[in-house]
Amino acid sequence: PDYFMDAMKSIGHRRTTPVQRQCWPPACAGSDVLAIAPPGSGKTLGFLLPAIEAALKDHRENPNVGKKRPGAPAVLVVAPTRELTLQISGVCNKLKKAVPVRAVAVYGGASQEEQEEALAQHTSQALLVIGTPGRLLAVLESGALQLDRCAMLVLDEADRMLALGFEEQLSTIREALPDKDSGRQTLLFSATFPKAVRAIGKTWLRKGFETVKIDSEKATVPKDDDDVNVHMAIVEQTVHVCAEHKKSRKLMKYITKLRAEDGRARSRVLVFANRIKTVQFIADLCKRHNEKVSTLHGTMKQNRRDQALKDFKAGKTPVLIATDVAGRGLDIAGLEYVVNWDFPGSIEQYRHRVGRAGRQGKKGAALSFFTRKFTPLASDLVKLLEKDGHFVDPNL
């Protein structure tokens, strides 16, 4: 549709990315789509604009449905985390300048009653509901959400949802939807394509679905408007093999070096740890070295998590220490540095963490500490580093 580019420009995007160009035509033609695209490839708009088009089309055909059945959306977007849900709904609401749509986000850690009130509001606008599996089930069970007239379903980060154990919840949500053979359209997005994703693809998608696969080298948006080529996000990856007790000194040496190079403007550093206890340890360490820090993990209340992200994005706290709750789906514009204090449990998760830096064609750097207990991952890590042309620690 012609308004897609106007909508893009309204939020500061002047060029489309490969995933957008390849997903829009089949999605807008009514086909199911399976899209494999890495972080930073522009996939949110890849599914969101076709989803908005589906909602607007339904609204044109059923103009009074928002008043008669306010909690019965034409489009449902399912995402694995609260942060990603808020990010998607935030983009959708920014697009309101260009298209008359309303997005309601439902997620855990916030008032279910308030979310149900938002769903119950009678509206003359097309409605999209965006939510996490657990809270979606809760508002389904309460009757505040009805999915029997849902024309389009979007599953974002399907691989992540399966890794987090949401398969059973997703199946229950599917039972509340119109059957796929009734014409209900599904867009399934995933950063990776393991067997589990292939399996749910067969379950959720209609026969003849379109497959879009974007290589990381072709994934990201141009660095500026004069650049006719689409560039990869260049992340300089450094892996240090070290003992656990040496991490503190190495981290502070690294941050001190960055600060010496920064001058007055302090670069932001996202530090990943595998345990909440470790997050607090690193935060205390950084504070002792006069670093302003925020923390982010799954047991924090939603308002504190939102504030931590807000402060980090604004540069008020240039260091954010997080568990993997922040590892996927967060679009932190201009993030320069990622540090893996704890190496993640898989190479796939390593790629997702590192992908937080250097998004949308900008350069970034990632430092990872690799201890002996992760030895089983060494061989695959070496292959990955060599393939991307990075230095490989001889101790690996």
From TrEMBL:
Q: Which SUPFAM superfamilies match?
A: P-loop containing nucleoside triphosphate hydrolases
Q: Which Pfam families match?
A: DEAD (PF00270), Helicase_C (PF00271)
Q: List its EC numbers.
A: 3.6.4.13
Alphabetically sorted, this entry's keywords are:
ATP-binding, Helicase, Hydrolase, Nucleotide-binding, Nucleus, Ribosome biogenesis, rRNA processing
Against InterPro entries, the record matches this protein to:
DEAD/DEAH_box_helicase_dom, DEAD/DEAH_RhlB, Helicase_ATP-bd, Helicase_C-like, P-loop_NTPase, RNA-helicase_DEAD-box_CS
Highest taxon listed in the record's lineage: Eukaryota
The chain positions of domain Helicase C-terminal read 250-396
**Which residues, if any, are the signal sequence?**
none
List, for all copies, the residue spans of the domain called Helicase ATP-binding: 24-211
Gene3D superfamilies in the cross-refs = P-loop containing nucleotide triphosphate hydrolases
- Extract the CDD domains matched here: DEADc, SF2_C_DEAD
Task of the protein: ATP-dependent RNA helicase required for 60S ribosomal subunit synthesis. Involved in efficient pre-rRNA processing, predominantly at site A3, which is necessary for the normal formation of 25S and 5.8S rRNAs.
Entry's family note: Belongs to the DEAD box helicase family. DDX5/DBP2 subfamily.
Mind telling me what this protein is named?
RNA helicase
Species this protein is from = Ostreococcus lucimarinus (strain CCE9901)
The top of its lineage is:
Eukaryota, Viridiplantae, Chlorophyta, Mamiellophyceae, Mamiellales
